[in-house]
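Subject line: Sequence and fold of a protein, written as structure tokens
Area: Proteins and the way their chains fold up in space.
Start of record: The labelled sequence and token lines come straight after this line.
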Amino acid sequence: MTEADSRSYGPRLYFLALLVQFIWALNNSVSKFALKGFPALLLAGIRMALAASFIIPFYWHQRPHDWGGRDFWKLLAFGAVGIGMNQFCFLVGVSKTSVTHASLIIPLTPLLTLLIAAALGQEKITARKVVGLALAFSGILVLQLSKQPDQSATLLGDFIIFLGILTFAIYIVLGRRATSSHSGVVVNTFGFVGSAVLLLPFTIWQSRGFDFESVPWFSWVSLFYMAMFSSVVGYLLYYYVLTHMEASRISAFSYAQPVMGTTLAALLLGEPLTFALLISGGLVLAGVYVTERSRWN
């Protein structure tokens, strides 16, 4: 991108990058409202099915031709694992823990990505990265050892959230080369369609005998937001920004998400902001910052 392009796109790109983080941060709280009407497995399946139906018109409108027959199963598999399993674990996890905990665990994604890439020989672990990793994981340790006034937070739920970001980190490392030559519309279309297919058995199983008429209106609205905005709009905006802004600069905006997520959880759900939670959040953000800075330099 040229200097002129940077000046032209700068303010708008910064706004869109921040908007994506807000959309995803709000999704953490919105999911709690959706879970009041739907069981987690059914919610995950319907969300992916709706997201697939929402993104297909975008795909047909652009008619991208940057994939061939050999790419079909590869894109479908990576999308199902990276998006489907990630969202499945997120919804099951957040149904068993607090939004504030989820908002502080999710930022560990780049650190897990680094560890997996290092294990595969794609990255080197330096002393500065070790310090960053130690800070971040000590923040999670503080989170788990502190006394929690909010009884909705559980170790099991936190662990499932962790498994979710682990699957996404694996997707980033293994799928980076496989999907880097394809447009964001193609990658996300295959991701949502593959995820809907992967979760289809669970969706059918959970739908049998379920009383959809008893679902409150705010759960339906929340489901629509999760499928349309946090899934389709969020991912498409992220890929759009990624094509016009350096990846290192985009990652800096991710520091806003846990702050937004915990604040929104306090405002919308009444989840407490304890001193231990603030210490934990500070350690996680400091660890991610130190580690990511070492990768940029």
Remarks:
- The chain has one domain: 3-296.
- DSSP finds twelve helices and no strands in the chain.
- The two ends are 20 Å apart (CA to CA).
